[in-house]
Amino acid sequence: MQIAERRVAAFHYTLTNDKGEIIDSSEGREPLVYLHGVGNIVPGLEREMSGKKAGDSFNVVVAPEEGYGVHHAQLIQRVPREAFQGVDTIEPGMQFHANGPQGPMTVTVAAVDGDTVTIDGNHPLAGQSLHFAIEITDVRDASPEEILHGHVHGAGGHHH
After folding, report:
1. Which residue of 64, 118, 122, 144 lies most exposed, with the fewest beta carbons within 10 A?
2. Does pTM surpass 0.85?
3. For 127-144, how does the pLDDT look when each residue is reduced to its tens digit (9 = 90+)?
């Protein structure tokens, strides 16, 4: 059975950056399971998954535009320390939820300089090419509920 719309695929992956450093991997964990065709994974990877079947292994490089987006300088802002009320310690790398112009977003603290905190609203992988090593482990038809809800249920999926 091939990966296509209304099908659920399970796969192992290792994601590396341009330098070959591992960013994320399913090694030692359950495979990632997703419903194909509804944007549950980055667009460039989803396109490459089409037509593949269980047992297939392949490598794909996803450009930023089809991954986590290009890096937008306007998403980097300097805000006063008092904007973080109730937070005792603020350090680079910490993430906070904020309300942006397009709704809720996650920002990462890029720097702390005295009473000024620099936050970055870009995804941590924005602007980076994503190097995936993929191994498809299973492909099955999605259930009517999974199609209706737009994600996988049960083992390896979301629970309500």
Report:
1. 144
2. no
3. 999 999 999 999 999 999
